[in-house]
Design brief:
By secondary structure, the chain is mostly helical. The protein has six helices and two strands, in the order ββαααααα.
């Protein structure tokens, strides 16, 4: 994505607003000129197995914000029948992001919302996603986040997707 500064908003080549500021490993904007972590490309079409593998690697590296972007791509480009599961997985990744940033309220809320979406999903999970274990993980972490209100270590708290 190529961006330029037009006024006080970054825009891509089509004129859509895009924040080109560098970001840290949890997706927080950094000042212009500060080195950040490489962003996940948007709109990538992957197989379910590729999505799970890429998201797991990002979660293991303590980058749940970036994993959420992979899940979001799967949600938007995958089969309609799986969109609810991918959306719920994206919500849990954002919940972990907020918990790692120290936002206990938002983290717990999104972890629970994601757990509800995963629990409600019916069918054989794509790419061997272990829905029961993920529901348990998200609920337990939400309780822990609310109890401690301290930021969690995103890599240490990351789930196993399969």
């Amino acid at each position: 994505m190529s961006t330029s500064r037009n006024g006080d908003r970054d825009r891509d080549q089509e004129g859509r607003a895009r924040n080109a500021r560098p970001r840290d490993g949890l997706g927080r904007p950094l000042p212009y000129g500060t080195p950040g972590v490489e962003r996940q490309p948007e709109g990538v079409v992957r197989t379910a197995a590729q999505s799970v593998a890429e998201a797991q690697a990002l979660l293991d590296a303590g980058r749940p914000f970036h994993a959420h972007e992979v899940f979001e791509d799967a949600w938007k480009s995958g089969p309609e029948s799986e969109s609810g599961l991918w959306r719920a997985l994206a919500q849990t990744a954002v919940g972990l992001t907020h918990a790692a940033r120290g936002n206990a309220t938002g983290g717990a809320r999104l972890l629970r919302r994601g757990a509800e979406g995963i629990a409600a999903w019916q069918g054989v999970a794509p790419a061997g996603v272990d829905t029961a274990a993920l529901v348990d993980w998200a609920r337990v972490l939400a309780d822990e986040v609310e109890r401690t209100t301290e930021p969690v270590d995103a890599a240490a708290a990351a789930p196993r997707l399969t």
